[in-house]
């Protein structure tokens, strides 16, 4: 494989999809050497078959708002690769959603799911519908209209969606309800369901907790204790909330959280009570993070991200490309020695270079945030054996999966000077399993 040539071809065939190109470039540049040790891969053009999704569904979603106006949005499902299990990956509802973003997410998901050691392929879906400012009834009508089209393409053994930005327990519940009505089947077709109807304990917490379990493994390699460390968290949604919760439990100090309008800086640290306030504000009232600063009298910076604040550890947990090269330089200059990604691809390629050149601990999302999909995989297992595991059982399994992912990264990513290149480690480990499965299944 000539990685530059493969990428050039993809850019020509699929223009205007910069996030997809970015994700592919990052993977190709790290797996090229390993790939080329296996001439049998190139004989069957494995790389193109792995980069281009198996199929993409695109559809119009039509729904009625509270004023009786008819609205249209675009809906998508990208089924990227099912060599090691049914397609699996979240659904994102956000005004920025387009096909290129979902293709990047589905591509990443394929490697991430492979790393979890569970039998899941990669997929992703979503819509440019924004739940922001919508009533409950509008969100329900939208979810139902979305599922009216999506249902024929998914199934517990085919493709199992979950939540992502803008899709939490409420949206998964509405989509599950419509799927059940259309198919007359109660199945594990979605994960992240409510506890009462097949949801797994610890699924809401899994991505944030998993990220911290991964961070602990990284810190262990340098004998660093997390207690008392100052942490920057971005976002204030599902991943950010449970990242902060676990950090607080472990005695770290969380000084920032954010939303798409700005960030708060609380030098005293966000404690349990303040985090409860954020959870209520975001999950119940769907308010803005600015209101935290008004309530607790701390700094609020509109239109900015928290990366210029002084800290030890950064946990980006909002969205893609939220840390650019300059942000990364500021983080390193301010003493940050570990970055562990809760979000998917939050660091630009320039930012990743800055972290790696500075030899700080840096974990890409596909390794560090794999806890979410791992517990989704555990939810699928519980649904199919029709049993529910206890909180402790699921949490233990999550810890052990994150530990295994860390070990795989160390195995494939340790460089001659001992520095662990987690990007390379995660990509090579994730890739080899999918590649071997594809080779065994012939040209399909
Ligand atoms: P939520 O919708 O619960 O929260 C997203 C948070 O990020 C909100 O605070 C939101 O602010 C902010 N945000 C979203 N888009 C932007 C933007 N363009 N610029 C600045 N801030 C933004 O989503 P999740 O917490 O579930 O997801 C966060 C990240 O984690 C995503 O990258 C997702 O792909 C990734 N992830 C999620 C998993 C999960 O299990 N949920 C699993 C693995 C990864 P606002 O409220 O203003 O919209």
Automatic annotation (TrEMBL):
Belongs to the Glu/Leu/Phe/Val dehydrogenases family. Residues 200-442 form the Glutamate/phenylalanine/leucine/valine/L-tryptophan dehydrogenase C-terminal domain. It holds the Pfam family ELFV_dehydrog_N. NCBIfam families: PRK09414.1, PRK14030.1, PRK14031.1. This is Glutamate dehydrogenase. Homohexamer. InterPro entries: Aminoacid_DH-like_N_sf, Glu/Leu/Phe/Val/Trp_DH, Glu/Leu/Phe/Val/Trp_DH_C, Glu/Leu/Phe/Val/Trp_DH_dimer, Glu/Leu/Phe/Val_DH_AS, Glu_DH, Glu_Leu_Phe_Val_DH, NAD(P)-bd_dom_sf. Keywords: NAD, Oxidoreductase. The keyword NAD applies. It comes from the Bacteria.
